[in-house]
Specification:
Length: about 160
Amino acid sequence: MPTNLSNLRAPKKANSNKKRVGRGMGSGMGKTSSRGHKGQRSRSGSRMMRGFEGGQMPLHRRLPKRGFTNIFRTEYTVLNLDRIAELGEPELTVEKLVQHGLLKKRSELIKVLATGELTAAITVYAHKFSKAAQEKIEKAGGKAVLIGEIEVSPA
């Protein structure tokens, strides 16, 4: 049966009411308000650490720790030449990339990589270029312009 607006339904349990805890036997939560009998988790005000497994060594301590995470790492959004060629724009700025949906935010950093071929001359504005990508862009007659680099003219 094809789904259309006349026979749409919410998924199962999508419209269920909030649990009304501590409202007696008729609520379906019963005498203990679905906390079970006795024990640490049945008491009011009880709060265990995140990941507590009842005294068993928690998963985050059982797994081995390896490597190093650099907290100062700069993340670049990768853009390949074949995607740039598909757009068919003579000039590609950050605003145009956001407009075409290749970037989520204007503040993202862009790195252009050399996967694919360019036939038309395109001026590409990005924060970083791989050497091969820069060569391919210039070979096609375009320009690879770095964003955020201050041009110093010889005096």
